[in-house]
Structure formats: C-alpha cells, structure tokens
Design goal:
Keywords: Membrane, Transmembrane, Transmembrane helix. This protein is mainly α. It contains six helices and no strands.
C-alpha cells in the first residue's frame, strides 16, 4: 500500500490545480513517469524501511503523515513552467522529504514502544 501511494501521490497532489498542472508531470510520457516514480522511491522506500522496525501498523501513521504530507505539498506547489531550473526540484523534493520522514519515524518508534506495553 505504501508503494502504491508513493507512486501516485505526485500526480494526485497536482489534480486540485487542474489539468495544466497535471499535464506538467504527465506530458513527459513513460520516461517522465519512470523518473518521477524512481526519484520518489527515495521517500517511500524510507517509509517502507521504517515499517520493518515496527511491530504495530498503527505506528506508521506519523512517518506517513509527515512524509507523504511533505511530498504532496511539494509536488502540489511546484510549477515547472516558471523557471528552467525548476525540474531540479524533482530530485531535491524526495531527499528533503527524508527529514519529516525521519522525525515521523522517531515519533512512530515511540508510539510502537507504547503500544507494545499496553
């Protein structure tokens, strides 16, 4: 489920601004889809790796909310037509998402320890 959300999230985040915004990501064809999905694998892969350290699935709420929330906000506000250097953000966004994912991972770790005791 994490992988599916991670793959479609950049496109879903662009839908509220209309078809032009979505078109900025989809007009590149298969190679663009592979690029965006591959780069976002950094972020959702980190969440997936964190999930193996938890015993309770509810502990994933914090890293998913913070990580996917940051990714959704970043992809939803990135305008690729404003600057010729804007596509560089496609590489930077998943790397920057590692910080909120890490913070969420620590929160989830604490939640997991509390859930184990009860």
């Amino acid at each position: 489920m994490l992988v599916v959300i991670g793959i479609i999230l950049p496109y879903l985040a662009r839908l509220p601004r209309g078809s032009e915004w979505l078109g900025q990501y989809t007009d590149a064809g298969l190679s663009g889809w592979l690029l965006i999905s591959g780069l976002n694998a950094i972020a959702w892969g980190a969440i997936l790796a964190i999930s193996f350290t938890y015993e309770r699935p509810a502990s994933l709420i914090a890293p998913c909310l913070l990580g996917f929330g940051y990714l959704a906000w970043s992809h939803g506000t990135l305008d690729l037509s404003t600057n010729p250097n804007a596509p560089i953000a496609l590489v930077i966004i998943p790397v920057y998402a590692l910080l909120p994912i890490g913070v969420g991972g620590v929160i989830g770790f604490v939640m997991d320890r509390i859930f184990r005791r009860s």
